[in-house]
Structure formats: structure tokens, C-alpha cells
Amino acid sequence: MERLKGIKGAIFDLDGTLLDSMGIWGEIDRRFLERRGIELPEDYIDVMKFMEFNRAAEYTIRRFGLDETPEALMAEWTQMSREAYAREIELKPGVRACLARLAQAGVKIAAATSCTQELFVPALKRGGVYDLFSAFATTAEAGVGKHSPAVFLLAAQRLGLEPQACAVFEDTLQGVLTAREAGFATVGVYDESSDAEQEDIRRQANFYIRSFLEFGPPSGGK
Questions:
Q1: Among the four residues 65, 111, 117, 143, which has the most C-beta atoms within 10 Å?
Q2: What are 123-141's pLDDT values in tens digits?
Q3: Is the CA virtual torsion 135, 138, 144, 149 positive or negative?
Q4: Which among 89, 141, 139 has a CA at the least distance from the CA of 114?
């Protein structure tokens, strides 16, 4: 925490950074196909992850010869993801203590995420940290993904702070690079899903952590 001395705002990515959620999408794929008596092919998840939602639905129908509409598949996937975030997705170890310590130190906390509020709000509330956030910003609101700094700048604006007064916590190399180029301090956070990028993240971020447990327990006072 001493490494972030002077920072007035902390902006967090959610999936893969605060939430241990990256594996749920593969699990949703497995459950979805299992309902139809289909075993999950080894390459399916890797193929799907680069597709837009509607294209993924169309691809799935073609590949498995399903007598269903893309709209029906997307509705089912959406409902499955809602249930997973509301009931299964957990905070990463040490997150609750880290956020509490930042809040106690007077640091304003925001999220900058590609996730939708209908998914992340239940997960943060169940984790007991929702009320620690002062602002939320999504890429849908920003109108562009994290190859642009728009979502980080929107989060900082909602905190009433300049980028130079904020640290961005990200688990992906793209997120780290984009935030750094926009003037934010950056903290790389390890996640298994981006394991191949870890050495680059470590080099490019101002700070790097394997776990939020490195921040230790919350301390009283400011």
C-alpha cells in the first residue's frame, strides 16, 4: 500500500482482477452443451472467446446442428451468466481487505469494466464490497473497448479526479498499456487466464502483484 502513497483514486477492472470469474464462461459453455447431450469439444472455448455474442450463437447453431435461433441461445447464455454472477462468482483472496484499507485511507474507489451492471452488481454485493465503490464505468457507456482509455477516463471523471491522481488495477496487458498511456499509474494483477502475458505485464506496469493478499489486512484511521 505504501507504493501507492499519494494516490487519491483506485480504478479496478473486475473480471480477472477483483472477481475470480474468468473460468465461468467455459463452465457456462460446458453446461449449455451438456443440456443438449453434447460433450464440450477441446477447441470450442478458444474459438468462441474471439467472437461477438451474436456470431458465437450463429457459430454454435451451425457447428452442432441445433434447431434453435441465435436469440434463444443468447437469452439462455445471458440467464446462465446472471445466475453464475449472483450465486457463484467470488472475490479474489484479499480483495475485501484491500478495498477496505484503501477506503479507510481516504482513497476513492471505482470500477472500469467490460462487464455489465446486471452481472457485477450482484457479485460485488454478495462479496460485501459494493458500498465501498464511489463510481462505476463500463465500456458500453464509454462506447469503446479497452484499446481506448475512454472507460478509465470516465471512471476518473466520475471520481472527480485527474488520471495522474489515480491508479488502475488490471489483469491484462492491453488494459495496463492503455491506462499507462493515458497518464494513470498502473498495477498489474495476476490472473491465470492471462498467464502468457504476465512477464510483459510485470515489465509494463508501475507495480505488480500476484495476489491482493500482498496488501495485508485493513488498518484503522487514515
A1: 111
A2: 999 999 999 999 999 999 9
A3: positive
A4: 139
CA–CA dist 107, 11 (Å, integer): 10
Residues across the chain: 222
Q: Give the Cα separation of 134 and 114 in Å (integer).
A: 18
Q: How far apart are CA 89 and CA 21, in angstroms?
A: 6
Sheet holding 207-209, edge to edge: 135-138, 108-113, 9-12, 166-170, 185-189, 207-209
As a whole number of angstroms, the distance between CA 83 and CA 93 comes to 22
Sign of CA dihedral 138, 46, 95, 162: negative
> Cβ neighbours of residue 60 under 8 Å, at least 6 residues apart?
48, 66, 73
The residues, any chain, with a CB within 8 Å of residue 28's CB and separated by 6 or more, are 77, 80, 81, 84
The answer to whether the CB of 97 falls within 8 A of the CB of 212 is yes
Residue 214, pLDDT above cutoff 70: yes
Rounded CA-CA distance 15/153 in Å is 19
Residues facing 91 on adjacent strands:
19
Q: What is the largest CA-CA distance in the chain?
A: 61
